[in-house]
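Following up on my earlier thread - several people asked me to post the actual chain instead of describing it. Fair enough. Here it is, all 401 residues.
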Amino acid sequence: MKRFSPVFRNLTRKPGRTTALILLTAFLSLSLFAGTMVVSSLRRGLSSMENRLGADIIVVPAEAESKSSLKNMLLQGTIGTFYMDASAVEKVRETEGVQKASAQVFLSSMKADCCSVKVQIIGFDPENDFVVQPWIAESLNRPLGDMEIVVGCRVATDVGEIFRIYDQRCLVAARLAATGTGLDTAVYCNMNTMHALLRAAEEKGISHKIDTGNDAEVVSAIYVRTLPGADVGLVNNRLNGKIRKATAVRTTGMLTEVSDSLGGVSRTVAVLIAAVWILALVILFIAFAMMVNERRRELAVYRLVGMSRNMLSGMILKETALCSLAGAVCGVLLGALAVFPFTTLIETSLKLPYLAPGAGTVAACAALAIAVTVAAGCAASLHTASKLSRVDPGSTLREGA
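Reply from S.P.:
Thanks for posting it. Predicted structure:
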């Protein structure tokens, strides 16, 4: 610590200058860390969405586009209920190029005494499903039973509790891992449970019927996986020509739109970070240049008492490194406070999948932001350190006499 004693004394003797340097470097660190976290979370959310979709094509009723698009449901958790005749499932399976087809049925609960909370309910067929069950298997190591549900990570309930939907008591069997998409606010059940809920909703005046159908004859979406090597675009066109009153949507198109939006946000964040860094570094260079005249007499005294040029230069760099380190750590902490408590708000504002990275990634990004900020601060002071170390003590002290 002795070698740092003059450094600490210099920093505490000029609190205004020290505080200014810490604030500037904190600004650099905050912008870099917060910007990196936002972009990393968006990319992780997109990757999670790709993994969770698990299908090449999704067939939905034509009315879905006007009522509540599947894209909005996936990204923002928008509640939507739309139906088509269940006979479409077999037509999809019979289409050339289709390997698997799995149907889902959507239902919305109500803000009323008969329901615990208003959520999107998604029913799936365990015998044919290849979309939901791999995800559920991460949290539940057994088949999902009748009148049991699995909830997204943002649904306000706990495992083992009773969740009421249209006065039907459903047991919460598991909670799913976060995806950073609208799927985190949904509830999942098997088709037997869904049919019971549809009948209960019908008794409350919530109709889901189409033409002359009943609850066993409707589906909301059909997830399609094509055969290996099949032309997905061609299969998509076949489905659009074959299934009446329905629209086949390629998931790659949906993901491309999201990816393009993410790219735009990433570029905007990068430009903002660059602008902040350029401005802050210019201010740092100016601040260090002003220090040359301010500290000439002080450093001349150090030279007179026997401090070499290298020692003098090293002392200045140590001062800068300590200020930069303190500022960088403060900036990372402020960045964490600015980003992590508001993940839901950021996701809602950007309307993009947003999934915060794990602790390891956060720690690595924090360390990188601190290291880069300290390096930038030291680099900005190199010229000043070199210039001040060449001060001629005799002439400098005579000038000030």
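The two ends are 34 Å apart (CA to CA). That should answer part of your original question.
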